[in-house]
Amino acid sequence: MYVWNKKQNVISPFLVWLLAILMILSFMGFFCPILAQEKPTAPIMLEGRTLFYVRESGQYTAEQRANEANRHLGKILDSGDPPAVVGIDSGQEVPVITINNRYFLSVTYNDVPMGKSLQGQALAWKNTLEVAISKAEYERTLKYYIKAIIIAIAVIFLAAILSWKLGVIWQRWLKPLSTTPTDSNTPTSSSSSQPLSGYPSESSFKFQLVALLVLLTIIRGIIWIVAFVYISRLFPQIRRWSDLILEILQISLITDVFPLGNQKYSVLDFFILIGLLVGLVTLTRMVSRVLKSKLLTATGLSRAVQDTTALIFNYTFIFLGTIVVLQVWVLDLSSLTVFASVLGVGVGLGLQGIAKEFVSGLVLIFERPIQVGDFVEVAGLMGTVERISVRSTEIRTLDQVSVILPNSRFLDSEVINWSHSSPISRLKIPVGVAYGSNLEIVRNLLIKVAKNHQDILSMPSPQVFFPSLVIVP
Fold first, then answer.
1. What is the pLDDT of residues 21-80, one digit of tens each?
2. Among 66, 86, 111, 468, which is most exposed with the fewest C-beta within 10 angstroms?
3. Total domains in the fold of the chain
């Protein structure tokens, strides 16, 4: 018994890698701001919130002044004393901000922007500190914790609802739009099962499906990241840890730790390189697709030649583009000479088989002993040639099963091409006849049936022979 089985396409792990790269590159600007080598200013922070910035003063750098002030603020909040009182001592050479009548910070001329006085800057900082300290003290009360927990639960619930709604939109509207068309609603050429020009192919539908799924996953990831970041900002303790983790992440990503040649590179540099290479591959695919669909189609070349030309252009563009990207990345290519030599020898030994199939594919495509749509017999298989690429050839057998054969198989062994030069072929069809049958009537009936078939030619006319008598035991 013969059954028909529709094979399912499985999305490759390429989705996972693409998603990871896109997520890293999308949030690189948020998590990894480029820090300057010298910091002219440093932030005064309270419970993870930046209040204002100070500059260097005399022998003290901006960072030293900020660290001392931030440590003082932390001690005031952790002490549990009555509400802090912020004041200004104007009896000194420069205004001095005090907290609970103790020195906190001096306002210097370097801290004052153009057009503002020392006293005005001190008053502005005093008001900012009063509001921030009052808010920080309130955030340590039980009332605030209950309110923050309720808000956090609501945010998680809202994120879950949005994520679920995106899944509903995907299942109801987006996924059906990217479903691979069936044979019943997609016109195909008479010589093969390939879709006619102008109709999307199965690979393009699969690419759309993967792209939409990646986009859905990225949006869901952004929703949950925003939700957790917002929740972490609600609680002072978690906010401190998140700021510490963010600072460690920044330092680890921008520190040059990987020596290559005469330079050192950071993890962020490698992420930028990955982003450039991904952009190069994406741009190459787009240009190759336009070249194939617009320019090569107008030349009248066969589909196999078009595919090969587009593929050669694709690899050449990627190779040259990679060299340009590495130059833009400020990489000394001479430092990779030894590595490239060793890699070239290893790849050459390991890819001999692939190189053989590649050359065989070029021979098949340009000499054209077989073409798409030909009915061939090779290695005990009979079927129609569906696709010829530079590495393999796809044949669809009479059982509608796709068989992928290496191109070298068509050059190393005998191939019967029933469609080569002429689509006319003689078929031998054995027919059993019962004993005692009138052979003349059988002959006339067989010839009549053959002539009534639309694919049977009148010249040469069909013939019937009775070559032997078969005795069945």
1. 555 554 544 444 444 344 588 888 887 788 888 888 878 888 888 888 888 888 887 776
2. 468
3. 4
